[in-house]
Amino acid sequence: MSDTNNNNNNIPANTNNTNNNNVSDTFSQKAANDIATPVLPVQEDLQKSTKEMFTKVSDYIKGELSTTVADYNLLIQMNNITTSKYQDMTNITKGLSVYMGDLKLKYEEFQPYFEKINELDKNVTELEKTVQLLDEYTKRLEQKVKNIDKSALLPVKPTQPQPTQPVQQPVQQPVQQPTQPVQQPAQPNTNPETN
């Protein structure tokens, strides 16, 4: 009996495997049928879609090419403007080189005058030093003259000689009045402003 039960238990297991195999076979058949025979759209729809695709692709390519052409046109304009600017700068540089050549010639012409001016400047500097020395000497000399004038104005104390022999009395003679007034000696000017 037990053997019979075991056989019965084995039968449903085999049927389950068979059912699974049948399901997988149906899926694979269905997939193979779909791949082998795809559902094709109608011929008119296919032509319309293809035409629309080509139109849009051509519009896209035209747009890309037009932006590229615009970039190249912009580069051409920039190059033209740059060329004109460099041409102007070249002309200015040529003019400056000619002007510098003229200035160099003029400088060479004036070079002897510059040397004379430098020599004159040295002479003037030496003359200024000489004038300064003369000025200092004049100030010292003026100070010495002022000192001499002051010493000349100081009163001198007379010194009396001491008699070694008896002094004889002079004979008095009558004093005559002079007919002309006696001139007094000139007094030195003590005002420093007039000096």
TrEMBL record:
Any GO CC annotation of this UniProt entry: BORC complex
Key words, A-Z: Coiled coil
PANTHER family membership: BIOGENESIS OF LYSOSOME-RELATED ORGANELLES COMPLEX 1 SUBUNIT 2 (PTHR46479:SF1)
Domain of life, per lineage: Eukaryota
UniProt feature, compositional bias: Low complexity: 1-22, 165-188
Annotated GO MF terms: gamma-tubulin binding
InterPro entries: BLOC1_su2
Disordered, as annotated region: 1-25, 152-195
One family name in Pfam for this protein: BLOC1_2
Coiled coil start-end: 117-147
Any GO BP annotation: endosomal transport
Ranges that cross the membrane: none
Annotated protein name in UniProt: Biogenesis of lysosome-related organelles complex 1 subunit 2
Family stated for the protein in its record: Belongs to the BLOC1S2 family.
